[in-house]
Amino acid sequence: MKLEKMDAFFAARLNEYDKHMMTEIEGAEEFYPYTAALLPLAQDAHVLDLGCGTGLELEHYFALNRKASVVGIDLSADMLAALKQKFPDRKLKLICGSYFDVPFEANGFDAAVSVESLHHFTAAQKLELYHKLKAALSDQGYFVLTDYFAASEEAEAFSFSELERLKREQGLKPHAFYHYDTPLTVAHEREVLKKAGFAEVQILRNWKATYTVLAR
Ligand SMILES: C[S@@+](CC[C@H](N)C(=O)[O-])C[C@H]1O[C@@H](n2cnc3c(N)ncnc32)[C@H](O)[C@@H]1O
């Protein structure tokens, strides 16, 4: 398998992206509206979306809260352009960059959401990100994570070692982002969120490998 850079991977599949997610990912018809319904309904709600892509979760959120203001961060300029076209008249600020690098407004957000994006990263990368995220949330703020998780610790370890092997074999840069799924187990994800300072981490629901986790 030839690894592709993360942004190039999604740009190349943009045309079929929404249909692919909705028809090939088990539970998508339910987990997008379910995730959106957990986000704040107050008209002045300020929400951060990590890896917003073309905004499948935001379609449902804006249907519930037309007045919300959302900051969406994504590596792919093409995914963001498609999202912008869907919602020309919503309060939507889009930032093209990595959520590991983009600074977040301190105490600025009532909630954050991330759907099907964070399963590409290590626990160490996520710990740093979740520290930054926690500081960006208001006192009552919370994080809704809907993502794909590994079925076992063995599966988790295997995908990380495969990614390293493929990078070595293909002579790729160790720190660049390539599209290869390396999900943690949901138990490990919970540990990382707790370590980052979220006091309460609940596993709310799952659809096969996709879980919704709520961290406060
Ligand atoms: C499978 S898509 C999910 C998009 C959207 N949340 C959804 O569920 O349809 C993953 C998205 O995460 C983005 N992404 C991956 N790593 C990222 C990073 N480090 N920073 C920002 N965006 C990232 C990709 O560019 C892609 O648009």
- The CATH architecture classification is 3-Layer(aba) Sandwich
Number of strands: 7
How far do the termini sit from each other? Answer: 39 Å
CATH class: Alpha Beta
Low-confidence parts: none
CATH superfamily: Vaccinia Virus protein VP39
The number of helical runs is 8
What percent of residues adopt helix (DSSP H or I)?
40-55%
User: What is the SS-derived class?
Assistant: alpha/beta
Bound molecules: S-adenosylmethionine
Largest sheet: 7 strands, mixed
Report the radius of gyration as a whole number of Å: 16 Å
Mean pLDDT: 96
Shape descriptor: globular
Q: What can you see in these coordinates?
A:
41% of the residues lie in helices and 23% in strands. A 7-stranded mixed beta sheet has the order 3-2-1-4-5-7-6, sandwiched between helices. It has one domain (6-215): Rossmann fold. The chain has helices at residues 6-12, 14-24, 28-37, 56-64, 77-86, 123-136, 153-169, 186-195; strands spanning 46-50, 69-74, 91-96, 109-115, 137-148, 201-207, 210-215. It has 216 residues and is α/β, with parallel strands linked by helices. Helix 6 links the parallel strand 4 (109-115) and strand 5. The chain is built from 8 helices and 7 strands, in the order αααβαβαββαβααββ. The structure holds S-adenosylmethionine. S-adenosylmethionine binds next to helix 1, helix 4 and strand 2.
